[in-house]
Amino acid sequence: ARGLKPxxxxxxxxxxxxxxxxxxxVRELAKALVARMRLKALAREPAETAHSxxxxxxxxxxxxxxxxxLGILAGGSIHSLANEEVRHLLIEDLLDEAACRDVLLSxxxxxxxxxxxxxxxxxxxxxxAIQRTFTDDGSGDGHMVDDSADSLLGFSGKTPPxxxxxRLLGRVQHASRLETQQAFEQFLExxxxxxxxxxxxxWNQFDP
Length: 208
Prior knowledge:
- The chain has 208 residues and is mainly α.
- The protein has helices at residues 15-19, 23-42, 46-64, 69-91, 97-109, 115-133, 148-153, 164-173, 177-196.
- Helix 3 packs parallel to helix 5.
- It is elongated, with a radius of gyration of 22 Å.
- The protein starts with 14 loop residues before the first helix and ends in a 12-residue tail after the last helix.
């Protein structure tokens, strides 16, 4: 284990790579393993092909168990990439019986994490951000603290300071703590409903 380290965020970086700093190198590793699957299959080394497939699924499972939605999305994309390559290899008859057996065993051994757990992790992260960026009036409501979002994201000192009038107007224009929480909870409820629905009826929860 590498232990905890401070999150370094730059305005020039994509938020995807800032929030989940391991995402980019892990994706590159997965693509390299899939390329190795192809090379070993062409070299008629099906056992090594199955081994690289197993490594891909292990990475996908690890990513999908990270807190938050980004982790399971990354894990799902890696899982899909590896399975797509296996599909092509099967069509091209580049896997023998033993390799096919290993592929099936790997699929059973390394399933993706539960998306409900990822959504709950996303909720915890969001509520932590709310706690850090909003005041609390004692009844569950409040307003955003001046420049708190910039400080949380690491942008403090990189944006011009607000005038007292801008700060006052911001409290009126920005959603309150309670409104922000309610909007997020409504989004999560819709996402959880989509997940529980059959595939043919999904993506209707957010339609007007």
